[in-house]
Design a protein that fits this description.
heterodimer; A: mainly beta; 6-stranded mixed β-sheet; about 0% helix; B: mainly beta; globular
Chain lengths: ~110, ~120
């Protein structure tokens, strides 16, 4: 049973518009929530995180929202740029392990 | 800082062969881990270590062994390769303060094919 679900395998947006990537998790004991970005033939790179005591964290064009009651987090990218085209993984964690979603492939069209 | 390095970048094995994937980090991170990425499956944790001499199993440990004799190195051993182990393998490291909430730094990956 999947503990972390990214239900959209792909997303396509126009340059300058908002990209919204979603992630749902099942275990309410998770404390930390992260987003990673991955380009082809490279390792994932950390993008932004949020702890369970917050509901929003912002870093430049990237904002992560956490809704603990719904067990849902989302990543907003505003404005989207063609260089943002990549696969985005959400990851949730407790003390010693991170569980990753299957990823959403974002394509930003010029 | 080289960060997290992995060798080799590519490897082809025959069924039943053994090999070791190497991983090293120069950031003095306590926590190191191995993931595999398969199409449509995301990243799945194989084994992890919270410090030298300490290892534990992740989600998909069968067919793999690890050891952590130094802080810097965390090799992954395939004892008898099977076609189901064809995958891209990523090593990662991070600080560990009793929990892993901090960002992990990933290596560039090893693409393994088992025939």
């Amino acid at each position: 049973d999947q503990q972390v679900k990214q239900n959209s395998p792909s997303l396509s947006v126009q340059e300058g518009r908002i990209s919204i990537l979603n992630c749902d998790y099942t275990n309410s004991m998770f404390d930390y929530f992260l987003w990673y970005k991955k380009y082809p033939a490279e390792g994932p790179t950390f993008l932004i995180s949020i702890s369970s005591i917050k509901d929003k964290n912002e870093d430049g064009r990237f904002t992560v929202f956490l809704n603990k009651s719904a067990k849902h987090l989302s990543l907003h990218i505003v404005p989207s740029q063609p260089g943002d085209s990549a696969v985005y993984f959400c990851a949730v964690g407790g003390s010693e392990k991170l569980v990753f979603g299957k990823g959403t492939k974002l394509t930003v069209n010029p | 800082n080289a960060g997290v390095t992995q060798t080799p970048k590519f490897q082809v094995l025959k069924t039943g062969q053994s090999m070791t994937l190497q991983c090293a980090q120069d950031m003095n991170h306590e926590y190191m881990s191995w993931y595999r990425q398969d199409p449509g499956m995301g990243l799945r944790l194989i084994h992890y270590s919270v410090g030298a001499g300490i290892t534990d199993q992740g989600e998909v440990p069968n067919g793999y062994n690890v050891s952590r004799s130094t802080t810097e190195d965390f090799p992954l051993r395939l004892l008898s390769a099977a076609p189901s182990q064809t995958s891209v393998y990523f090593c990662a490291s991070s600080y560990f303060r009793g929990y892993i909430g901090n960002e992990q730094f990933f290596g560039p990956g090893t693409r393994l094919t088992v025939l």
